[in-house]
Amino acid sequence: MVKRSKPSKHSPNAVADRTAAVQAEIGKDPAYASVSPPLYLSSTYLWDDIETKGAYDYGRTVNPNRDALCKAIAALENGAGGVVTSSGMAAISTVLAMFTASDHIIAPHDCYGGTHRLLTHLHAAGKARVSFVDQNNAGALDAALSDNPKLLMIETPSNPLMRLVDIRTLSSKAKAAGALTVCDNTFLTPARQKPLDLGCDMVLHSTTKYINGHSDIIGGCVIGKTPELSESLAWWANCAGLTGAPLDAWLALRGLRTLHIRMDAQEANALALAQYLSKHKAVERVLYPGLKSHPQYKLAKAQQSGPGAMLAFEVKGGLETAKSVLSGIDLFQLAASLGGTESLICQPALMTHRGMSEDARAEAGIKDNLIRISVGLEDPADQIRAIEVALSKI
Ligand SMILES: *Cc1c(COP(=O)(O)O)cnc(C)c1O
Questions:
Q1: Please, what is the end-to-end C-alpha distance for the chain in angstroms?
Q2: Quick check: is 163 catalytic?
Q3: What is the pLDDT of residues 69-107, one digit of tens each?
Q4: In the sheet that 104-108 helps form, which strands lie side by side, from edge to edge?
Q5: Cα–chain-centroid distance for residue 327?
Q6: Which secondary-structure segment (H or E) carries 18?
């Protein structure tokens, strides 16, 4: 039997998510009836008269291509709306703009390196009050939640260690403490996890990654559960100039059409690679939510509709061993970022997470022998062969 993804509440006639993604804005061109949506690069738009502007007036504030992408992502996330931003970090900055310098913000201790750097420096400069917490440590989390928080930031699975947190529990605790919650859903996308359905108030993405899926734009978006939050996010993004470029939104919508089939295929490849690595004698441990050995395998099954296509593993040895695996590896591109059709490999301590202090990295458990892979769409036999050759060199 063919498995049908759950329909989105907001998608037209409640079609399956995959259908909604493929059909978003198709055949809706009001000017020339083009099947594919047109690209609107214009920075400004005509007014009807000095008192009446149309739906679009100025490109920083509103743009049809951003709107189309935002609507499509909001439908998949079951949100009311939001805003498409110039990057994932701009999406995070949009959320932070809603809070004052004295508002207490709780962030995961092992969040994305760029998020960690932004929050650390805003805090040091007195522009935000941030506490980094291991959100699986109930004592530490409850202590932070008792200090009048205004925002709880969630990121699951975490980057690069693939640790999960229980979104439903965290968002209900935050709600009880009077805080809003935002979840960074970049790693799984709405094709695998729907944070708003689990109780979050906002969900954000670096669309640079899986949503666009082809490693050729930088973009972001943030979606609110309610119309009020969505409007507030769009207001701040316009006010601070954080909205994204039309061409990037147009490309990201094109990428979104294949999100579900890309995720299905990349996830199947990731599972095969994780199983291969977990049996390899040069490998210390594999961190992948689709393996029974993952400490939160049960939570992954309950909270996610699949394990996704990101994995990490520790090689036996230290930095030198990791270096020898990564030097001259075939097929896997040595690069930061993730979520493209091509496989990428990186060493987080020196690459994606070098913005974090050594102490913060140690605290989060990011070791020098850790290697992260964004598993792409290549034939899985070729992927496994490339890893086999690289590991045989050590
Ligand atoms: C890449 C990434 C970001 C930042 O996104 P940019 O588009 O690079 O600004 C934020 N969170 C996660 C989990 C990411 O992987």
A1: 44
A2: no
A3: 999 999 999 999 999 999 999 999 999 999 999 999 999
A4: 81-85, 220-224, 202-206, 180-184, 149-155, 104-108, 129-133
A5: 28
A6: helix 17-23
